[in-house]
Amino acid sequence: MTRSQRITVLGATGSIGLSTLDVIARHPERYQAFALTGFSRLDELKALCLSHRPHFAVVPEPETARRLQDALAGAGLSTRVLWGESGLCEVAAHPEVDAVMAAIVGAAGLKPTLAAVQAGKRILLANKEALVMSGALFMQAVRTSGALLLPIDSEHNAIFQCLPGDYAQGLGQVGVRRILLTASGGPFRETPAERLAAVTPEQACAHPNWSMGRKISVDSASMMNKGLELIEACWLFDARPSQVEVVIHPQSVIHSLVDYVDGSVLAQLGNPDMRTPISHALSWPQRIDSGVSPLDLFAIGRLDFQAPDEQRFPCLRLARQAAECGGSAPALLNAANEVAVAAFLERRIRFTEIASIIDDVLAREPVQPLDSLEAVLAVDECARAAARTWLMRHAG
Ligand code: NAD
Ligand code: MG
Fold first, then answer.
1. Model-level pTM?
2. Which atom number of ligand 1 is nearest to the Cα of residue 130?
3. Ligand approaching nearest to the C-alpha of 252
4. Does residue 20 have its Cβ closer than 6 Å to ligand 1?
């Protein structure tokens, strides 16, 4: 019997983090939580530490680290509490860690995820923003270190499952014609264009099929999530943007498909529950029980498909343009989107202005090649500054 795998969960208090810990707890003989990190909801992080007893925890500030350290010591735990970005990078790259769940939301996850990549870990990648903003650099680091990169995003996990093991030699070489990336269409799939300006953060966060963090919920509502996923698919599977087609599939049962030159189309299906891709990536190439109930095709009854409407959902068009443009364009898109989504959640802008901000930033900022982490971070900062300037001019 091999020893149990030690897992660092970056973003343990989030939606993906909690689903990961649920799967880990189902298999105590196979997996143990080595480090848990949280940014807010630190009472929840404390409760997670008490039940999972990790070696390390990471919080944002030294003061909260000291308080959590004292509380855990008082409960008889020897968990060491670190803080800040250096703490995140330390637990991501720690020599005793086997796998890292990268589930921090947004650009904040880039450095710790890259630290795990550079240390050659098994990377369970949920943090799509990290890959979108630094794609070339990220994939180069994976090749250099020999890290094993496994997608957690349900669509990319599905595509990975539908591709042959040797797909890295090139999609054309293995007979792939297209990748069909499914999208639920989000809560506003049927909302007329003229009503989109008035939708609230609560409506945007009420996803019909998936329960997720607030940022990705807004991204799903604007379809920027599918745009980010298109860019993610291009990097993960070495695809051109024109090889990735978005298909609206409201039931979220088919998680994506691969279309081969002989006319075969392979799909991965399952209930919309992130514990399936998490379990797949944790145990690959084996399979483990995830706790997800079996798919009941009779209850589902039918599967529907529609073409996406890029007029009503301009974020999808902007993301495709950024993917085709390459260089720093995806990093600009991602950073502008993060600022815009935060402003929408704070009720400073309308839902439809998310796309206006991104459009403005992409039109204003020059596109350049990104060959270093410093260059990625500089572009990210420029795009945020440009988006904040838009907000100062147009929003309260
Ligand atoms: P969430 O908001 O529920 O959780 C985010 C986690 O990141 C929390 O633990 C939070 O404390 C931490 N965090 C936030 N800001 C931070 C910062 N500045 N520094 C350090 N930590 C910080 O989000 P989620 O829904 O779990 O999504 C996490 C990632 O996974 C996102 O990139 C998202 O796109 C991706 N993803 C999520 C789902 C899903 O079903 N939830 C599906 C596919 C991909
Ligand atoms: Mg997804």
1. 0.98
2. 32
3. 2
4. no
